[in-house]
Write a structure and sequence with these properties.
Two copies of one chain form a homodimer. The first copy, chain A, is α/β, with parallel strands linked by helices and about 350 residues long. Chain A is built from 14 helices and eleven strands. Chain A has helices at about 5-10, 15-25, 30-45, 50-55, 70-85, 100-110, 130-135, 160-170, 195-205, 220-225, 235-250, 265-275, 295-300, 305-320; strands at about 60-65, 90-95, 120-125, 140-145, 155, 180-185, 230-235, 255-260, 285-290, 300-305, 340-345. Chain A has a six-stranded mixed sheet, sandwiched between helices. The N and C termini of chain A lie far apart (about 80 Å). The interface of A and B includes residues 50, 53 and 115 of A. Chain A binds a DNA duplex (30 and 30 nucleotides) through helix 2 and helix 4.
DNA sequence: GGCGGAGCCGGAACCGGTTCCAGATTCCAC
DNA sequence: GTGGAATCTGGAACCGGTTCCGGCTCCGCC
């Protein structure tokens, strides 16, 4: 209803001065500013962001593209991003986009191409170079959180190191038959989060001198009574559950420890083990990664990370890229991997001899 | 970069005609339209939504306020909303807002007050009348999904009936000591989702003639060897877990069946039971509500609903309220509760005699 | 005392679309 | 053949802000 012209008239100044007074840009006498502010408050004036962005080209709005909203890690990241953005006075428009497909193309070519967002944060989605370049061309900063190859700022934990660390934890406990439940497609997409974790597992296995048995396929591994075994499944609780049922139901010497690619998978493993009458950790040690809030309840040993903090950090970088605030320093410690921490709980122990 | 004036010039028409040709409003000769479209495609023209909404007052954007993103029901709803909105060419800006507080006020008084959204969908959040009226005054349609009292269109399952149905399922199996794990604050907020489910439970218990024992507090109930018991906890897996540990660890005759206010709580109950050496369903029957995707894996009997469909439906109503599309009929069956379905799995059975 | 510059303010252009209005043409009906 | 409606198009106003430019005042300094 009320436009800035009304405010100006009421305050007895021009539109230009009213705009300057309210936005804080330019010189305005202190009592003039007060008059304008009073007038604005009196008629309940609220600036139209559309009009403002039309002329300034900035929308105070960032797009977030995210493949899942219902998996713990992603949900936490999203919440972290949302809070930080809100605090900075920004809106967040959500694009729930998974793998390639017409929906995804539409999002990138139509929705993100318009001038609605100032920047985009892509979490856990492998952008094609065309998609990344498209944003670049339009001058929209891009920040990535995990997943995919370079192009734009990139925030990530060192998933390969995490995979190695988790595996080493089991090896140090004395396990020699440790299996890895990888995320679906880990072998095919080595650069992905789960691909990296799988590689870290293989690193650790090889370093322990158990590597040769692993080289073969999972089936071959089982058949030869291998020290190590790889299986893939959805990175969810049911995914871990069914993969674990399969793994533990195999003939031959059973794995005594499992490194699951995510905590949610690990929960599924624990449940599957118990269903089969195995006791965790007596008969089977289990470690995951994420630091899921259910970890406590399941007594799960894990490599924890802080998705919420990661989301906030991504917003920090975005705002910095947009020249927001007084962030003098360019980028804090760009490239350095995000922190992780081994949290030992009840689900891992030395194997029975 | 490219503005509509450029398109018009290239096509040899006026801005007005170009606008009409591209937006489809008004009369344009068919070959003129083709020329304009070709020109637009040639220079990669993309309309500025800001300019358009400045003059039309519509933003093609709806706000979604939601208290959680990481609980299954809410995540599913959000995904459903997102897909439907995207398909209709709308953006979705997310406001992750929980209970009252400064953040919430800021969202309603600043973010939603601006002209950025055409409508808002509130899922599972109890709007104050001030908040609802504020939106009303600004002419923004409001659609609610679950939770809270009237004001604006309201979509919901019949939570009270669901609570009764779940309880009756247990009673019909022959259980006489059935406990209810309600959501935190259920007793204090009887209009809320979990408040209604609790009331449904009490209805069924009373109807079965087991009511008198329930009237007292939970503690009193336990002490008197009551037929029914009420406990509250967070509507999450750990929430159900700790509440169940407490419930099942009590002295006196143990409940033989538990109705958990949500599937996530029910999973926690199952795990707690097994941790205590109880077998489900032999020693304890468990029923939840939601239709969680993990239900299969846990073999959980539940009253299922379709949060994704509910999200899509909410979008439908919103678009209709915005006069979008050719939705001739006003509102389909407004007021009718959304569908639910009893899904019987392995977690419920008759009590041992 | 004069001059440069900073502070303050108003007029007007502008961002990029949409829509009203008016003029021109075509088409149909009487 | 003519009146009137329907179709098509262009000019111009407009949405609600921001910002450029220029004018004025006042201060400090040479």
């Amino acid at each position: 209803m009320a436009a800035i012209g009304d405010v100006a008239r009421l305050a007895g100044v021009s539109k230009a001065t009213a705009s300057r007074a309210l936005s804080g840009r330019g010189h305005v006498a202190v009592d003039t500013r007060r008059r304008v502010e009073a007038a604005a408050a009196e008629i309940g004036y609220i600036a139209s962001p559309d009009a403002a962005s039309l002329v300034t080209g900035r929308t105070k709005n960032v797009g977030v593209v995210i493949p899942f909203v219902n998996r713990w890690f992603f949900g936490e990241v999203l919440e972290g991003i949302e809070r930080a953005l809100l605090a900075a006075g920004y809106d967040l428009t959500l694009y729930n986009v998974g793998d390639t497909g017409p929906v995804r193309d539409r999002v990138f070519e139509f929705f993100l191409a318009r001038k609605r967002v100032d920047a985009v944060i892509a979490v856990g989605v492998d952008l094609t170079s065309r998609e990344a370049e498209g944003l670049e061309q339009r001058g929209k900063p891009l920040v990535r959180l995990g997943g995919g190859e370079p192009g734009g700022a990139r925030l990530s934990i060192d998933d390969r190191a995490v995979g190695a660390l988790a595996t080493e934890h089991l090896l140090h406990l004395g396990h020699t038959r440790v299996a890895h439940l990888a995320g679906a497609g880990a072998a095919a997409a080595p650069w992905s989060v789960h691909g990296q974790r799988r590689l870290g597992y293989l690193d650790a296995i090889a370093a322990a001198g158990l590597g040769d048995a692993v080289a073969g396929s999972a089936a071959a591994g089982a058949a030869s009574g291998a020290a190590a075994t790889l299986l893939e499944g959805e990175m969810t609780m049911p995914g871990g559950y069914t993969a674990a049922l399969q793994l533990l139901g195999r003939p031959g010497p059973r794995a005594t420890a499992v490194f699951a690619a995510s905590d949610e998978m690990a929960f599924g493993v624990i449940r599957a083990a118990e269903r089969l009458g195995l006791s965790v950790p007596r008969d089977l040690s289990v470690i995951g990664v994420d630091g899921h809030e259910y970890g406590e309840m399941f007594g799960l040993t894990t490599i924890s990370q802080s998705p919420g903090d990661q989301g906030r950090l991504a917003v920090d970088v975005v705002l910095r890229l947009l020249g927001e605030g007084e962030h003098a320093d360019p980028l804090p410690d760009s490239g350095a991997p995000l922190p992780t921490r081994l949290v030992v709980r009840a689900s891992t122990t030395a194997p029975e001899r």
